[in-house]
Amino acid sequence: MLRAVIMYASALSLLLTLVIVSTRSWARTDAILAYESLRGDVSSIYVRDAQRGIERQVTDATRNAYEPEWSPDWKLAYTFLRATRSFDIAILDVSSGLTQTAVETTAEPENTPRWLMDGRLSYVRFLLPMDILILTVPGDAPTVVVSGPGVNRDPCWLGQEELVFASDRDSIMDLYLLNTESGVLQRLTYDPAPDYNAACSHDGQLAFATTRDMNAEVYIIDPITLVETNMTQSPRSAEFNPAWLPDGRLSFVSDRSGNREIYILNSETSDWENVTNNPYNDNEPSWIPTS
Question: Domains in the chain, start-ordered, CATH in brackets?
C-alpha cells in the first residue's frame, strides 16, 4: 500500500507550491533539469529551468537527498538518507507536493532509482551482493532482475526489456546488457579500468564514465558495434554522471572549474555549456522527457 512519508511544514509547503507554479509556467522542453546539490551540510534536490536560469529546492532541507530521476509523467524519484543512516527511495509528485516511499522496508538500503517508460521503477539494493530490482507499484514486493555475483549498479534502460548496468562479476567493473525477457546477458566493455555511470537515451544511445585515461572521462558506446568514443577529452579534470537530454544532447558533471558543475556538450563544436554555474558541488543530472 502507498504510504505517505511526510507532509512538509508550512514553510516547505509554500516552497513546493512555488515550485509547482514555476514549473507549470516553464515550457515542458528538454531544458527542465533536476539535480543534486551539496549546499552547506545537506545535499538537496533542485529543479532548474536551464534556459531561464530559474531554480527551486524541492526536497526537505533537514535530510540528505540524492540521485533525482524524472519519470515520464513528471514525478521525481530520488534517494534519501534516513535518520537510521540507511538509504531509501522516495517519489515526489510535483503536481501535489506529496512524497511517498517507494519500497516498504527499512531493513534493506536502496539507491539509484531508474524509471522504465511504462512507469515501473528499477533500483539497486545496496547490500552485497548488490542486486537490481523492478518495482511495479510503490509499496508492493519488487522483482529481482539482476542478482550477484558481486556488485551490480548504475542501471539504465535502452528499451523496455534492455537493461544496461555496471558489474564487477568478471573482476573489473564493466558494462553489461541484459535482455530481461530472454535472459540473454552480453558484456559491452572490456577495458581493464572501471566503467560505470551507465546512461541510456530514449533513442538508444549509451554513455558511461570510465577512468581508462588516468582520469574520469565520459564515453559513448554503440551497443551493437561496441565502438567507443571519448566525448569529453579533458585530461586535467574529471567528468562523470552522464545524462541525456531528450533532444539527444549529452550532459555530465565536471570539476574543471574547481567544483562540480553540470555541463551540456555541443557535439558539433565540442563546446561545453555550464548549466548550473554556482559555487556548490552539483551532481546527478536528470532531464525531463518530452514524450
Answer: 4-287 (2.120.10.30)
